[in-house]
């Protein structure tokens, strides 16, 4: 029921069609942009898309407040249900909450090994069968080649799909001639999909710059409405 | 001594259970010369700490009932209320907070902000109580007051700064540097009673200036005068104290003190802090509701000449009769005064007035606004407002949560039934979250409360104080029933065979509703005469008391009455009540009824190495893990778990984590019971009905 009402029209489907059916198990995808452009909104929509399919999701955050993340979900959920004119939103909402766990870490002094260990204990003894892991707020400006390799290995071992956000900072240019953010260049081996977000007049334009083995730099037929923060 | 209102403080000591609150209270009493010897909490020397005056509390090393005591420090009269730290007793904490003007929030320098600290902090905020923070146990291995300070900032969201920095830590902890007077303080003598003031140790100079700057920076927000003085580099002690006081009273700032109560260090400066920074009763606004003017809010004046308004916040049944603890908000009370209880509408004369010191008391002639005292032989319940005759005020009532767990009890032998009744009468009067009733079907005595431990403590008290041994049943969860869809009804109640007949017909529908119950009358054209509409309402309400699934109360129902029929002779109040009951029965089954159970918000605080086990244990208990927060060493896991699955969890958690984890639990909402559990419950209910039928 749920799947039909929402997922068929979902822009996430459009996105996944563009990247050979999705980031795929064992792989890592990244949304990269400057602060406040809409990375978290994208991540939350991917998570909600999975949750609508009744697939559990773990949302890993390196920010400090859980209520802040929850309010992101609430906001996007509200906008989605309004747009899709969904009935019995409350019931759907309850089912969504059951399938989502938010894990919060502080990156300073928080080793990736530790994060993965916690994820593992939630997946194993915690009996929480997530296949999608959302990672928001990870700092790519600290040396993290090893960490990315660990995430990649974890994704492969457990057949999980990971979606990260990468906050870009510093002076322009942020991207190389192929559109790849400079900060991610060292980790391309561990990353399967990179999508960048940029302001384009009144909308935010999504650009696919790495699609598994291809470096592409192609504009996606997807935009983010800065009002509702929804992809369309 | 001269008890003027400016020299009065009413404070509470709020904390996490093991942060050393009782030890701190004990030291305060000692330095204020209220007791002459220091006892330790767990009764190692046979005495037990003075505030923990109940035998049971002594044995468990925890404080359950809030005793109040009065001390004198530096010419100020301080009423201290020792508040319980365990979450199952929060009604006690909340009642105490209602009458406080300020609080000391005690934190452990090793454990820092833990889940119970958050609960207590939330309560302080809810009752708008200004607070000082005291970071205790600086002598412990792993003590880190700076970390705790940033936790106060981040986790509690308080703007806080250190007023002191430590001289040494752990086993080298010697004293503190006062950042206001810029002096080092050491605590000499067998019990730290002599405060020795010295110059700041040179190796601490840099650190001292760094934290003093931070302090100035933070509190300059509260005083332009201070900001100017900082720029001109002429900050005086007085100016700084004034700014801190202003920030603290407005609850925008939390000053942090340091020490180790157990090692007798840092307590006296904390007492100075209470006097310097926490408000006197006249600086706090208190509001009463005027019952004669439709509960219009009235701001009370801490004026000793005004008519009296006081609030009974705690009762105790002692060997000399009932003792009522009251806080006077306005006017004064003297022996022989006539007062009026605005709830029971009874007048009474003030007999003995006493000031309490843990378990002994001092007779006094009277007291004025702002003070906390106790009266003897007054018949009232906790939460009552007492006024001078002529006033009819009620202090805003304290929020009392509904009990979530019940337990059937039975005296082990018949002779103690009488004593059991007395014990129950007293406990229910003292604690509004503890209730009892007799089940009309099973004739069993059922007690209800806020958690397993809550009820355990009362069973222990029955045994100790009333010598009643009771056998208990399995704890029962307070289930509810509700409907999930709209259903129509059209029901005629008819009994017209000889004599006066009964006739009533009701038509309408029932549907799910967000609140508990709503009755809507849409009958037009007098098809049901107006005088019988309340009868229908009454009939429906009667049906809601016992659902048809498992006999639990039904909630979340709106009943809309659209039409009906009556008989000029045979229709009556009772006929329409019975029609409504029949109608409800008819519609209920069609409205897809469901069983609801209390879902608790459970927060587990555990060393991260055990988080996997904790996840597993919550999952096993049908829990939904909402979030987990890790800071490297500790994980804070928040979950929603049905109460029925939480029995005995403390034992499980302890053994699973080598006793290093702890949890808090509070009622969150009613949630649907899964189908398999619902079936089981209905089966049990059916069996019970059959068994009762056979009797």
What would you say about this model in short?
The complex is a heterodimer of chains A (232) and B (695). With 232 residues, chain A is of the alpha/beta class.
Q: How is the largest sheet of chain B built, in terms of strand order?
A: 18-17-23-14-15-22-19-20
* Rg calculated over all Cα atoms of chain B: 29 Å
pLDDT < 50 runs, ≥5 residues of chain A: none
CATH topology of chain A: Rossmann fold
Quaternary status of these chains?
heterodimer
Percentage beta strand of chain B:
25-35%
Please count the beta strands of chain A (DSSP E, at least 2 residues each). 8
Known CATH architecture of the largest domain in chain B: 3-Layer(aba) Sandwich
Largest sheet of chain A: 8 strands, mixed
Mean model confidence by pLDDT of chain A: 86
- Domain count of chain A: the total is 1
Portion in helices of chain A? 25-40%
Pattern of helices and strands of chain A:
HHEHEHHEHEHEEEE
Q: Largest protein interface?
A: A-B, 23 and 20 residues
Give start-end ranges of low-pLDDT stretches of chain B: 41-48, 56-66
Q: How many DSSP-defined strands of chain B?
A: 38
Task: Give the averaged pLDDT of chain B, no decimals.
Answer: 83
CATH fold category name of the largest domain in chain B: Rossmann fold
Shape of chain A: globular
3D structure, described in words:
The complex is a heterodimer of chains A (232) and B (695). An 8-stranded mixed beta sheet of chain A has the order 3-2-4-5-1-6-7-8. Chain A contains 7 helices and 8 strands. Chain A is an alpha/beta fold. Chain A has helices spanning 2-7, 11-18, 39-52, 66-84, 89-98, 112-123, 145-158; strands at 28-34, 57-61, 100-105, 132-136, 161-168, 193-200, 203-211, 214-224. The mean pLDDT of chain A is 86. Chain B has 695 residues and is of the alpha+beta class. Chain B has 16 helices and 38 strands. The longest helix of chain B is centred in the C-terminal third of the chain and has 20 residues, at 675-694. Chain B is globular. At the A-B interface, strand 3 and helix 6 of A face helix 14 and strand 36 of B.
């Amino acid at each position: 029921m749920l799947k039909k009402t929402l997922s068929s029209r979902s822009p996430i489907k459009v996105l996944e069609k563009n990247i050979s059916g999705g980031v795929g198990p064992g792989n890592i995808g990244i949304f990269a942009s400057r602060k406040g452009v809409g990375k978290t909104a994208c991540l939350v929509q991917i998570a909600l898309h999975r949750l609508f399919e009744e697939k559990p999701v773990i949302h890993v955050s390196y920010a400090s407040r859980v209520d802040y993340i929850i309010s992101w979900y609430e906001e996007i959920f509200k906008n989605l249900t309004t747009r899709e004119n969904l009935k019995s939103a409350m019931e759907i909402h309850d089912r969504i909450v059951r399938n989502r766990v938010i894990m919060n870490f502080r990156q300073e002094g928080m080793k990736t090994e530790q994060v993965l260990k916690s994820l593992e204990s939630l997946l194993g003894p915690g009996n929480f069968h997530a296949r999608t892991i959302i990672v928001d707020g990870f700092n790519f400006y600290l040396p993290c080649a090893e960490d990315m390799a660990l995430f990649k290995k974890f994704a492969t071992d457990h057949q999980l799909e990971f979606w990260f956000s990468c906050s870009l900072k510093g002076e322009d240019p942020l991207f190389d001639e192929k559109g790849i953010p400079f900060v991610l260049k060292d980790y391309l081996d561990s990353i399967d999909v990179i999508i960048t977000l940029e302001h384009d007049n009144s909308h935010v334009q999504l650009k696919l710059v790495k699609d598994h083995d291809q470096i592409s730099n192609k504009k996606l037929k997807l935009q983010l409405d800065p009002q509702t923060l929804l992809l369309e | 001594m001269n008890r003027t209102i400016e020299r009065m403080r009413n404070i509470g000591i709020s904390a996490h259970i093991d942060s050393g609150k009782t030890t701190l209270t004990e030291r305060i009493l000692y330095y204020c010369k209220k007791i002459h010897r220091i006892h330790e909490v767990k009764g190692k020397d046979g005495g037990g700490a003075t505030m923990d005056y109940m035998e049971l509390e002594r044995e468990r090393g925890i404080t359950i009932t809030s005793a109040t005591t009065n001390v004198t420090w530096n010419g100020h009269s301080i009423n201290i209320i020792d508040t319980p730290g365990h979450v199952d007793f929060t009604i006690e904490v909340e009642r105490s907070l209602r009458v406080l003007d300020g609080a000391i929030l005690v934190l452990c320098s090793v454990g820092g902000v833990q889940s119970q600290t958050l609960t207590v902090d939330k309560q302080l905020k809810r009752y708008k109580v200004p607070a000082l923070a005291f970071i205790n146990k600086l002598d412990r291995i792993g003590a880190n007051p700076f970390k705790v300070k940033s936790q106060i900032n981040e986790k509690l969201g308080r703007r806080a700064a250190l007023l002191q920095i430590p001289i040494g830590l752990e086993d080298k902890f010697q004293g503190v540097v006062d950042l206001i007077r810029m002096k080092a303080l050491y605590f000499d003598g067998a019990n730290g009673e002599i405060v020795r003031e010295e110059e700041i140790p040179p190796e601490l100079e840099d650190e001292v200036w760094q934290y003093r700057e931070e302090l100035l920076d933070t509190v300059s927000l509260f005083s332009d005068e201070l900001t100017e003085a900082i720029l001109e580099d002429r900050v005086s002690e007085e100016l700084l104290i004034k700014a801190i006081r202003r920030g603290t009273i407005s609850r925008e700032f939390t000053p942090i003190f340091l020490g180790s109560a157990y090692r007798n260090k840092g307590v006296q400066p904390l007492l100075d802090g209470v006097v310097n920074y926490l408000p006197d009763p006249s600086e706090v606004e208190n509001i009463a509701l005027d019952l004669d003017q439709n509960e219009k809010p009235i701001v009370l004046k801490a004026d000793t000449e005004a008519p009296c308004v006081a609030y009974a916040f705690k009762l105790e049944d002692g060997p000399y009769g009932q003792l009522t603890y009251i806080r006077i908000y306005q006017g004064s009370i003297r022996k022989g005064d006539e007062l009026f209880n605005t709830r029971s509408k009874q007048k009474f004369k003030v007999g003995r007035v006493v000031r309490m010191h843990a378990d002994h008391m001092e007779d006094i002639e009277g007291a004025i606004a702002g003070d906390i005292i106790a009266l003897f032989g007054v018949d009232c319940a906790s939460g009552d407002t007492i006024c001078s005759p002529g006033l009819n005020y009620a202090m805003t009532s304290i929020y009392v949560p509904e009990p979530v767990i019940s337990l059937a009890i039975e005296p082990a032998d018949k002779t103690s039934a009488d004593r059991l009744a007395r014990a129950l009468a007293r406990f229910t009067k003292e604690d509004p979250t503890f209730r009892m009733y007799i089940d009309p079907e099973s004739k069993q005595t059922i007690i209800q409360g806020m958690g397993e431990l809550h009820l355990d403590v009362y069973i222990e008290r029955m045994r100790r104080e009333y010598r009643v041994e009771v056998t208990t049943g399995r704890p029962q969860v307070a289930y509810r029933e509700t409907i999930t869809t709209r259903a129509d009804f059209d029901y005629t109640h008819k009994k017209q065979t000889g004599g006066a007949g009964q006739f009533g017909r009701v038509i309408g529908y029932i549907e799910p509703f967000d609140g508990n119950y709503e009755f809507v009358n849409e009958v037009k054209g007098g098809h049901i005469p107006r005088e019988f509409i309340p009868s229908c309402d009454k009939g429906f309400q009667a049906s809601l008391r016992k659902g048809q699934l498992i006999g639990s109360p039904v909630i979340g129902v709106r009943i809309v009455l659209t039409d009906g029929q009556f008989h000029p002779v045979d229709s009556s109040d009772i006929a329409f009540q019975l029609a409504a009951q029949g109608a409800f029965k008819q519609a209920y089954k069609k409205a897809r009824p469901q069983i609801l159970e209390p879902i608790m918000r459970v927060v587990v605080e555990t060393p991260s190495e055990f988080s996997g086990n904790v996840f597993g244990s919550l999952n096993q208990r049908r829990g939904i893990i909402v979030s987990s927060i890790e800071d490297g060493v500790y994980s804070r896991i928040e979950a929603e778990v049905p109460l029925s699955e939480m029995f005995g969890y403390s034992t499980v958690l302890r053994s699973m984590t080598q006793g290093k984890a702890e949890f808090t639990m509070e009622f969150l909402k009613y949630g649907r019971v899964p189908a398999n559990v619902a079936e089981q419950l209905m089966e049990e209910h059916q069996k019970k009905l059959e068994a009762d039928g056979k009797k």
